[in-house]
Write a structure and sequence with these properties.
The protein is built from ten helices and no strands. The chain has 256 residues and is mainly α. Helix 3 runs antiparallel to helix 4.
Length: 256
């Protein structure tokens, strides 16, 4: 196995061991101090809820996953697109970037009820809320990456009479990839929060909706299990972005 692969496997093993140790400690402490289930259930108590059909775990998790992925993909596409536009046109950037900054200051919890009024209940309002949260970091980091061109490379392209498109394709875009993926990793985390904000405000399906439903009966094991599933969705999306980053950034470095 290559050295990089060995280091990756070792890192993954350490991460897995730490997580398992924390979960085991959680179980031991809850049992040792006899913590009431409605205050803090043990990991085994939370896992036991997966066998109950009344929670509809599969369908609720699928709905939330669609909202998270939809909001993230929309935010990534629009964020990168506007970053490219701002890089190519300073006038457009001067006109729209301050507006986007102002809109980003709007608390998303306050925006949620308006989105529900405009688009009614369903998956789309929650996708839009997730998009509104993860869009801006992707825009800013991508725009910064595209603008940070090394002066020597810029002079070289100009001396060779390279076009603006050549500069973008050969210099700006490859150099901005680490920034793009950095913003996307932040956006992946924020997309989870955005989807849950929408489900908390008004929703008929999803893990956030389920948490609101079981809260009234102090069904803490189900609430904890919903949080665990949300965390796993976020980790899966973050891991996907990380995998794409290693694929494209490492490949781009090797090609150079």
């Amino acid at each position: 196995m290559p050295a990089d692969g060995t280091r990756s496997a070792r890192s993954f093993a350490i991460i897995l061991i730490v997580h398992v140790a924390v979960i085991a400690l959680w179980q031991v402490l809850v049992d040792a101090f006899k913590v009431p289930k409605f205050v803090l259930p043990s990991p085994l108590a939370a896992l036991s809820t997966l066998g109950s059909a009344k929670y509809a775990w599969l369908s609720n998790t699928a709905v939330t996953a669609i909202e998270i992925l939809g909001g993230f993909c929309l935010g990534a596409f629009v964020g990168v697109a506007f970053a490219v536009i701002f890089t190519w046109s300073r006038i457009v950037a001067l006109m729209l970037l301050p507006l986007f900054v102002t809109l980003n200051m709007i608390p998303k919890v306050a925006l949620g009820p308006l989105v529900i009024v405009w688009f009614s209940y369903g998956i789309w309002p929650n996708i839009l809320i997730a998009f509104s949260i993860c869009f801006f970091p992707i825009l800013l980091t991508t725009a910064r990456g595209l603008s940070e061109v090394e002066p020597d490379l810029l002079d070289l392209v100009k001396s060779l009479r390279g076009s603006r498109w050549t500069l973008f394709r050969k210099i700006q875009l490859p150099g901005s990839l680490p920034y793009v993926f950095s913003g996307m990793k932040v956006g992946a985390i924020l997309a989870v929060a955005g989807a849950i904000v929408g489900e908390f405000i008004a929703s008929e399906r999803g893990l956030g909706y389920l948490m609101i439903q079981v809260q009234s009966s102090l069904d803490t094991p189900a609430m904890v299990m919903a949080v665990v599933l949300l965390t796993l969705l976020g980790v899966a999306l973050y891991g996907l972005v990380l995998g794409l980053e290693r694929l494209f950034v490492v490949r781009d470095i090797r090609l150079q």
